[in-house]
Write a structure and sequence with these properties.
Strand content: 25-35%
Number of helices: 4
CATH architecture: 2-Layer Sandwich
Helix content: 25-40%
Number of strands: 5
Strand order of the largest sheet: 1-5-4-3-2
CATH topology: YaeB-like fold
Order of helices and strands: HEHHHEEEE
Shape: globular
Oligomer: single chain
């Protein structure tokens, strides 16, 4: 089931605000996930996400597990990629 832009934006902001999120493991995490490395904080990511509208959004199936919908937001030079595996929110990339 797809979430759509509004639901994905609402849910990812809620996860960031509560601190209830995880980071997907990857080899280049130091350049691809500034949230995981602490170079940006959740509040900064929320600010970017709040400025997004549907034109800044796309989604597609996860490359390894097609039933997982991966969400991407691109705004003000930021690239934010995440997915939900209930009840968790997983960040893949947060970078400029």
């Amino acid at each position: 089931m797809t979430k759509g832009f509004k639901a994905a934006r609402r849910d990812v902001i809620a996860a960031l605000a509560s601190g209830d999120y995880l980071h997907a493991s990857r080899g280049d995490i130091e350049v691809k996930n500034l949230l995981a490395t602490g170079e940006v904080c959740a509040a900064q990511v929320i600010e970017v996400i709040r400025t997004c509208n549907g034109s800044h959004y796309r989604s597609s199936p996860h490359h390894a597990v097609a039933s997982i919908e991966v969400h991407v937001l691109k705004r003000h030079g930021w690239y934010i990629k995440f997915y939900f595996i209930e009840p968790e929110t997983w960040f893949v990339s947060v970078h400029q």
